[in-house]
Write a structure and sequence with these properties.
This protein is mostly helical. It has eleven helices and no strands. The N and C termini lie far apart (92 Å).
Length: 236
């Protein structure tokens, strides 16, 4: 059974008089509530790198980043506890883009081709930040914290390069050292190479990989050969 109001089914709602209607019209409309800013780590990093490109590393601050994005300073510090954390986040983004290819694609390449492909993929991922990276290198001389983050990014990238290239076993540490030196040399050339075809960079990388290949072949002659496993005795 449907419920009826206490005043009965036939009651008629009262209309506001003229004074009440005037008061209602004079009440201010509620102000719209601004939506919470949806700022992702990607937005923060892209904006940070754009600011560094424009003004340099020495002028970049996290409160300035918050002001640029119109978000609270605490929101920025949740993502980046320090300025150096911006560089660490950039390094991890470059790692991800460098390795963003299928296992099948890597399987079709030999170790030298894998290193060539992976290093070039990383440099291509760095292109949008080239000017900013130049300014970071210029402004961070003598900055120990920045140098430590840069070394951490380099070490992690080299380990990923060597592992993805399929280099394992006793020569892994030596391979990491060689790939690290090669990558630093190529990176220095790339930073000064403004040719869209990247001819100098490609040449340096190709020559460096050829030297590594010759060195690896020479070292194999001095490495102890593995003995073939003795056959299991036949069951009697």
């Amino acid at each position: 059974m449907a419920r009826r109001s206490k005043s009965g089914a036939n009651s008629v709602p009262q209309q506001p008089n003229d004074e009440q209607a005037t008061l209602i019209e004079q009440q201010p409309a509620p102000e719209p509530v601004a939506p919470e800013p949806d700022t992702s780590a990607r937005d923060l990093l892209d904006t940070a790198m754009a600011m560094i490109e424009a003004d340099g590393w020495s002028s970049f601050t996290l409160p300035g980043l918050a002001r640029e994005l119109n978000v609270s300073v605490s929101e920025v510090y949740k993502q980046f506890p320090s300025r150096a954390a911006v560089l660490n986040a950039l390094g991890r983004r470059l790692d991800s883009q460098m390795l963003d290819l299928s296992g099948q694609e890597l399987e079709e390449l030999n170790p030298r081709e894998r290193l060539f492909e992976l290093i070039m993929r990383r440099l291509d991922a760095m292109k949008p930040y080239k000017v900013a990276l130049r300014k970071i290198g210029r402004d961070s001389r003598g900055d120990l914290e920045t140098a430590m983050v840069g070394f951490g990014n380099l070490s992690r990238a080299v380990m990923e390069l060597v592992d993805a290239a399929g280099v394992h076993g006793p020569g892994t540490l030596l391979a990491r050292h060689a790939v690290g030196l090669l990558y630093v040399r190529v990176l220095r050339v790339w930073m000064r190479d403004d040719d869209p075809e990247q001819g100098r960079t490609l040449s340096e990388l190709d020559k460096g990989l050829a030297r590594m290949e010759r060195t690896a072949q020479s070292l194999r002659r001095f490495m102890p050969k593995r003995k073939a496993a003795a056959p299991a005795p036949a069951a009697g």
